[in-house]
């Protein structure tokens, strides 16, 4: 039977759009007749997505931060419910973003449409009870993190582990030959306003402190897609020179840094794969952080630390996401080659734990074998 028809695919944030674009490309390689509609960003639109909704309109994070967007979120969900009933796609693919996508799963299930979840929601971090929801509403769960296999076993569930798609996004023959430049520090303050605005001034403060006794240091900011360079400079409250780079070839540039300071998120797993030691920073509203401390059930927030089972990347959260603390940790690495070398050795081990290239193709095969 020809594997054709329409698939609804839903990404809830920019990192999901990146993975969604790669998955769509893999599906089209195996089944060129497929068509896609749903919610996505530039990566998915480039693959031919009929974007009923844009991921850029949903990209919010945090408990209290979401509250201000509730009317718009419900309007988007209402539109999706109506479109699913009208279009009756052959399947629905959901990518991460459980707070939004679980509602979409219910709509699809009610219509008898199979639901595939690519990039398992982080139930192991909080709300483990939602595993029952997944067992009821999700046809196949496709995981990209090795420790999730054991997590879902607790609930009598089998997941399809396909390896991590970030492995496919790195040009390894080029990357592996790049040597870090001594004194080059890369800054990745995130892609959301609520990440960038608290962190960029603290990164600047750390640079000011470090430059006083380490004048050879150079600071480079890698601009996330959709972030204005002018806004990054406004938030750079330091006289220390800052070079800003576009996202193009960012993996090669990250590899060439002696170390990085980054907002917690997918980028920390990217930096770990590439092999560059990274200080992980994040700030939330006080209420969001207080709620998070009560409900989060894992010892770490950074994916590299969760995968390794220990703190390979220092996690500087909330009050610790401070210029003085960042500078202290950076100096400890920059002045101790053995310490930073030990981190790089750990990262070489982590890279072997994330599977071989081909994760999007393996995920596509899981989906298409049911067609």
Automatic annotation (TrEMBL):
The keyword Repressor does not apply. Keywords: Glycosyltransferase, Lipid A biosynthesis, Lipid biosynthesis, Lipid metabolism, Transferase. Its EC number is 2.4.1.182. Transmembrane segments: none annotated. Coiled coil: none annotated. One of its GO terms (biological process) is lipid A biosynthetic process. It comes from the Bacteria. InterPro entries: Glyco_trans_19. The keyword Lipid metabolism applies. It catalyses: a lipid X + a UDP-2-N,3-O-bis[(3R)-3-hydroxyacyl]-alpha-D-glucosamine = a lipid A disaccharide + UDP + H(+). GO terms for molecular function: lipid-A-disaccharide synthase activity; phospholipid binding. GO terms for cellular component: membrane. Condensation of UDP-2,3-diacylglucosamine and 2,3-diacylglucosamine-1-phosphate to form lipid A disaccharide, a precursor of lipid A, a phosphorylated glycolipid that anchors the lipopolysaccharide to the outer membrane of the cell. NCBIfam families: lpxB. This is Lipid-A-disaccharide synthase. It comes from Desulfovibrio subterraneus. The gene is lpxB.
